[in-house]
Amino acid sequence: MIQSSRDQSFDYDELDRLTDALGAYGDLDYSYDAIGNRLSLTEDGVSESYSYAPDSHRLEEILGTTTDARQYDAAGNTISSLLGSYTYDDQNRMVGFSNTGTTASYGYNGKGERVRKTVNGTITRFRFGPSGALLGEYDQSGQAIREYLYMEGQPVVQLQGPVPAQVSYLHTDHLGAVLKATDGAGSVVWDSDRRPFGERVETVAQVEMLLGFPGQYYDQESNNYYNYFRDYDPTTGRYLQSDPIGLNGGNNLYVYVMSSPINNFDPLGLKCCTIRVVTDMECVIRANDKFRKCLHNMFMECNSLTGEGGFIPFGASVIMCSSPPAHDRWRINCNEQLQRDLLKCKIEVCYFR
């Protein structure tokens, strides 16, 4: 059902950064400096300003109705903010958070997936699928808290509680982020007027929904999102850690998806993907060994793959590390799942047209 009250409109600057958003959450205006740091946010006429270290991208202070001063360690990890204090391991993964009344710790497996969270003594364990998708959350005894089902990479069902679980059907947007959830009768059991950078404004909460933008999981204790290799602060549109892949992830080490969260997403917390539409994809292949290695032996299971070099057969086409392609642009017409698989490379951007 179309609801005009849920309409939103957006404006952008010449660098495709979001400058204005109008929706049920109000009227939001953003400004940026030359390298993408947010300088101001004005919400319904009330402004806050952002200041940065002169020799880095590190956010030092937010000045508005309150003052949020931030501190960092030598590796560029945020160690304190208005919300609390953070600690990290030697891989710059967040392993602790604390504020008045809350103490949390986090544990990771060898792949970098966060598999354990303890908040004030309560342990939650997480299970991930082969592709890195979150499959479920479990208590210390192994009982399911929530489990998730996916179709072509998109979350479509949430099962809450042990058997018989409460079943919720998930409705996602063009990015794959959950907009609302319904029960078997079609009644809305969870809904949110999500702000552009992911801040939660729940309007219906009969079930708990902790999935955020693709690859993100909401941590209620800190009001941040776990985003696989980093942690994301939706109030600032920035990560709490510097980008692990450095400038390969863009010219700003902290900003989320080039400040264009309506069009872009970052499932791993490394580098953004850009979605235009969902049928045609043009991959720009540059002379980049990391990119070729990422695509090495990945079968392009399309009905056809054509470009300046002509037709390439179904099912057995690879880009070899030792043999760069003769042409730098190929148009791929294939299913959405393959498009998402290709985007997992995160080394070069594949633009949907």
Automatic annotation (TrEMBL):
This is RHS domain-containing protein. Gene3D superfamilies: RHS repeat-associated core. Keywords: Repeat. Transmembrane segments: none annotated. The lineage of its organism: Bacteria, Pseudomonadati, Pseudomonadota, Gammaproteobacteria, Chromatiales. Pfam families: TEN_YD-shell. It comes from the Bacteria. Residues 5-243 form the Teneurin-like YD-shell domain. It comes from Candidatus Thiodiazotropha lotti.
